[in-house]
Amino acid sequence: MADESKAPNSPDSSKPESSGPASAPAAANAPSSSVAKPVPPAPKPPPPLQTVLENDLVKRYREKFGEAILEAIEDRKQAILIVDAARIHEVARYSRDEEKFDLLEDYTAVDWPRREQRFDLVAQLYSFTHNARLRLKAPLTAGIAVESLVSIWPTANWLEREIFDLFGIAFNNHPNLKRILLPDEWQGHPLRKDYDILQQDNAWVQENLGIKSGQ
Q: Which of 157, 159, 160, 209 is nearest to 183 (CA)?
């Protein structure tokens, strides 16, 4: 008699069950945790902000003024000449007449109280002829006056007055060197880094405003 314990369509129990060979390729393609990930390249260091400048413009200035051109640098595509403060008037006149820097865009100062030459005078020039800019910087010792640039660029008049008012730097042969923002009698120069802005000039405030402090 036929064994009726097997259903006609039941799988043959004599055949071993599949161990999943079809899944083997998928397992072979699975990423392995032991495979090292590629190391990204190290970031490039940023380019230096300041580099030595040696071009035809600098060569002409050096030929004309020699050691009075203390240094020439380029900072973010800005040409900068560090010049002897005693000769800044000569350099400025040459810049206008020969190099055609017609416009004095700005003239100011920076205070470095721990430096022997405490101040930097900074003149920003523009040439309409060449559509170019040039910055002149002149290190200056406190208490030393420099020649005014008003005879070269009249716009230096108020700019030098502002430098005198806020930094205490004097300019020889300025037509009207006096304070421009603060009262004439004010004591001190507020943009010097040793000036205590919270104290102000208490004597002037009390005398002229009738109060003990402006703060």
A: 209
Chain segment 3-45, per-residue pLDDT in tens: 555 545 555 555 555 555 555 555 555 555 677 888 888 888 8
Region at 88 (left for phi over 0; alpha for psi -120 to 50; beta for the rest): alpha
SS3 of residue 210 by DSSP: coil
Rounded-to-integer distance, Cα 130 and Cα 99, Å: 9
Residue with tokens 């392995």: 32
CATH architecture label of 50-181: 2-Layer Sandwich (3.30)
Q: What is the residue extent of each domain of the chain?
A: 50-181, 182-215
Residues 144-181: tens digit of each pLDDT? 999 999 999 999 999 999 999 999 999 999 999 999 99
Torsion of Cα atoms, 108 then 112 then 118 then 121, to 10°: -20
